[in-house]
Structures are given as structure tokens and as C-alpha cells.
Write a sequence for this structure.
């Protein structure tokens, strides 16, 4: 009911965010750390912060997310958290025996000014970190950026602490995905493996947060990129960053750090973007495109052609993370849809806006940053009602209030399952996403049809 009081009049805001269309950096950093094999994410801050970050990921993946915390109290909040984290290192390695501890900061530890590299060096000097074990750290204050920023910063930390150039190329292609589902990471690997390309992908959360239920508890599931694989990324022939916002900084760092050139491309959602990814793999790795991949592409093209009458001309409003939004816009445009609004709480810069307008047209309203919140998105939808909304679970209230079909995409999705098991990237992912869009639109046709006009065959 409260949503119905959202005014239609758009007022420029510079200091107020209402229901942000993002979450904080440590959530993305924690998720990225889970993509390293036998790694324990560690939140350097209060217990409450860590509990929120864990619960956000646990609710999204319906899988328990393991992480530790420095457990700041009043004393640590005033005098710093060095004593807490040094004790934490000893406890973590003694109780949980990870190979790697990936530390991310919070608002509190950043405000205090804790120097993590200095603290890690002290821990090594005092033998708090056992031989053969590693601690890495990323600066991820919640008071700026978003979960995408935090994810990117943690991936950069992996490169900083692990990647090495031995001077001998390994013939591999580095694949660095942006913040996407484990199912999407598995699909990216499926494409590379089907083509016979040698690759190193990190982070890799497939088989980590979407593992099977077999009756056995595993503190560290079998998935995730190993420390050795990430170290070897410094000898690769090329880094492919899949999604500019989430991968540009890590890819640039790997180029600077190890002289591995980088290509940043759009997340492969839809035909054109997946074609670009497949072609780049083909050229770089010197492989051919197998019949299996051509079949998957043809199936997506077939459904796009067969069902175009249901998607052509339909209007869509999108909210979410920048890299996924670019992919969604591309697929929707391939289906003949019109894009009305594209909103992201993550500040993506003028290149993002130019990209969206290039794909969707100059009339599309594009806004990113702190004031690009769900309140603003609701105002846009009220002013120019679309046929479809694509966004996360928080859109359900707007969709319900405005009686608009919703296709759940992005992070977080708390009220449905499937996103961690079925991809939206690649040709197979595009087919699933197209199916979800068609189901939403055709269900609405059936619901709104008069009794005598309900069609058996559509």
C-alpha cells in the first residue's frame, strides 16, 4: 500500500536514496572469495555486518554461506581491530583449516583506518598464519560503491596476491566473469570446453554455492579456482573480462602486474554478445566452433523467429547491475522489444549510458548511481507503464502495485529458485531467459483474454 503513495513527479535528488537498487561492497567481496577453492571469506568488522552479508547470499542461493568475522566490540571500534583479527587468524586456521583466508573490510574498519597489509605482515611475523597458508585482503567500505565494486576489488586482490609471470606462456586464456550466478559461470566454462580452448577462470563459484545434496557436509566444496590456477593466470596469452563494470579493474591490474593483455567484452547474453565471446575464444585460442555450439545457437535463433509475434514491440523496464543490464538490453532488442528505462544503483559512468542508448535508442531513460534507486524506478514505471519488468525480487512490490509481469533477474532473488542452476548467459542461457520472458507475456495474454478468446494453441 505504501508504494501507492510514490509520486509520479520526478524531482532531482542529490543527497537522498530511497530503497537503493544495490547492496554493499562486502557482499560482492564475500561472493568472489567463495570462488576460490578452499577459501574462507573473512569480514573485518562487527558480527552484525557479517551476519547480513551471509544472510543475503544464503537467502539468494538457498545454501549456507560460510564466513568468519573479526567480531568488533566497543574496544575494537575505538582502538582498532588488529588484536581481533590476529586472534581470528589463529582460530580460523586451527578450527576450519582453509588454504586461504580472504579478508574484506567493512564501514567500521575502514573508518577506523586499519592497515590490513601491515596486519597481515605482523600475523606472518608472529606465526599466526601457518606455512603453506595464505591471507589476502581487499578494501571494501560499504559507504561507497556497491556489491559489484566489492566483487571487483576482491578479484583484484586475488591477482595482486597470487598472479605471477614466470616468463613462460602457458597457452591459456583467462576468463574473468563479472558478478553472475554459478550457473552462468558453469555455462561460460561449457562454451570454452566445447571449443577445446585452454582456459583459467576465476573466480568460479560453480559447484560451490549450487552444489548437490548428498547427505555429506563439506566446509569447502569441490568447486572454485585453485591458488595455483590463479597464479598461472600471469602466464596466459590473454585475459577476457566478461562485463566492463565488474572486470575492468582486475583485467587492467593483471596487464600491469604480469603483462597479460586484456579484452573487455559485454557479458554474453543473447545472440550477438555470445557470438562475440565465441569468436574471441576462437581467434585467441586458435580453435574452431564445434557443431554442439552451432546447434545451441540455432535453437535460440529458431525460438526468436517462431515466437517473435509475442515479443515484438513489447515495452520493458529494467533494473539491476550494469553488466547484466547490457546483456538484457541486447537480448530484448534481438527479440524486437522496446526498452523504456534502465536503472542501476551501481555507478557505471558515461560509457554505460552511451552503450545502452546505442543498443536501445536515444529515448531510453538511463540512470545509475546512488539516486538511481527503486523509488526512482517506480516513478518511471508510473509515468510510462511497460509491458514487462526485468529485475530482482525487490521489484515484486512495484510489479504487484502496477499489475505488470515480472521476470526475475540479477541479485538478489529471494522468492524463487532456479537462478543458481539454470544460466542466462550463452546460447542456452539466452533460450531460458527468452522462455521466461515469453511465459510472462503469454500468461498475461491468457489472463486478460475474454472467455471466448482464450487460445489453446498460441
Amino acid at each position: 500500500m505504501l508504494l501507492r503513495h510514490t509520486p509520479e513527479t520526478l524531482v532531482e535528488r542529490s543527497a537522498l536514496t530511497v530503497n537503493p537498487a544495490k547492496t554493499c561492497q562486502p557482499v560482492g567481496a564475500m561472493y568472489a572469495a567463495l570462488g576460490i577453492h578452499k577459501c574462507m571469506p573473512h569480514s573485518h568488522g562487527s558480527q552484525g555486518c557479517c551476519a547480513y552479508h551471509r544472510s543475503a547470499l544464503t537467502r539468494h542461493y538457498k545454501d549456507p554461506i560460510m564466513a568468519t568475522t573479526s567480531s568488533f566490540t566497543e574496544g575494537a571500534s575505538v582502538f582498532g581491530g588488529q588484536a581481533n583479527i590476529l586472534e581470528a587468524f589463529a582460530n580460523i586456521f586451527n578450527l576450519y583449516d582453509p588454504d586461504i583466508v580472504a579478508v574484506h573490510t567493512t564501514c567500521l574498519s575502514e573508518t577506523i583506518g586499519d592497515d590490513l597489509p601491515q596486519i597481515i605482515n605482523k600475523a606472518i611475523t608472529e606465526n599466526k598464519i601457518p606455512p603453506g597458508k595464505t591471507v589476502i585482503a581487499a578494501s571494501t567500505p560499504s559507504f561507497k560503491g556497491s556489491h559489484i565494486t566489492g566483487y571487483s576489488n576482491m578479484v583484484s586482490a586475488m591477482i595482486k596476491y597470487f598472479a605471477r609471470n614466470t616468463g613462460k606462456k602457458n597457452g591459456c586464456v583467462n576468463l574473468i566473469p563479472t558478478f553472475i550466478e554459478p550457473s552462468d559461470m558453469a555455462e561460460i566454462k561449457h562454451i570454452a570446453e566445447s571449443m577445446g580452448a585452454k582456459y583459467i577462470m576465476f573466480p568460479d563459484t560453480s559447484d560451490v554455492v549450487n552444489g548437490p545434496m548428498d547427505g555429506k557436509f563439506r566446509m569447502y566444496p569441490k568447486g572454485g579456482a585453485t591458488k595455483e590456477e590463479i597464479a598461472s593466470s600471469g602466464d596466459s596469452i590473454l585475459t577476457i573480462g566478461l562485463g566492463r563494470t565488474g572486470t575492468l579493474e582486475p583485467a587492467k591490474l593483471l596487464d600491469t602486474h604480469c603483462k597479460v593483455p586484456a579484452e573487455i567484452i559485454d557479458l554474453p547474453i543473447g545472440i550477438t554478445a555470445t557470438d562475440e565471446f565465441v569468436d574471441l575464444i576462437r581467434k585467441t585460442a586458435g580453435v574452431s566452433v564445434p557443431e554442439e555450439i552451432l546447434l545451441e545457437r540455432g535453437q535460440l535463433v529458431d525460438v526468436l523467429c517462431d515466437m517473435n509475434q509475442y515479443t515484438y514491440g513489447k515495452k520493458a523496464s529494467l533494473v539491476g547491475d550494469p553488466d547484466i543490464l547490457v546483456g538484457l538490453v541486447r537480448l530484448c532488442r534481438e527479440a524486437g522489444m522496446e526498452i523504456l528505462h534502465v536503472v542501476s544503483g551501481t555507478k557505471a559512468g558515461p560509457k554505460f549510458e552511451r552503450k545502452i542508448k546505442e543498443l536501445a535508442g536515444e529515448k531510453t531513460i538511463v540512470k545509475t548511481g546512488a539516486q538511481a534507486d527503486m523509488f526512482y524506478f517506480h516513478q518511471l514505471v508510473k509515468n510510462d507503464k511497460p509491458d514487462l519488468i526485468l529485475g530482482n525480487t525487490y521489484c515484486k512490490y512495484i510489479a504487484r502495485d502496477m499489475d505488470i509481469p515480472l521476470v526475475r533477474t540479477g541479485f538478489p532473488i529471494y522468492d524463487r529458485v532456479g537462478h543458481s542452476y539454470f544460466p542466462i548467459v550463452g546460447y542456452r542461457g539466452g533460450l531460458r531467459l527468452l522462455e521466461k520472458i515469453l511465459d510472462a507475456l503469454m500468461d498475461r495474454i491468457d489472463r486478460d483474454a475474454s472467455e471466448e478468446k482464450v487460445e489453446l494453441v498460441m
Summary: The two ends are 35 Å apart (CA to CA). The CA atoms of residues 407 and 439 lie 9 Å apart.
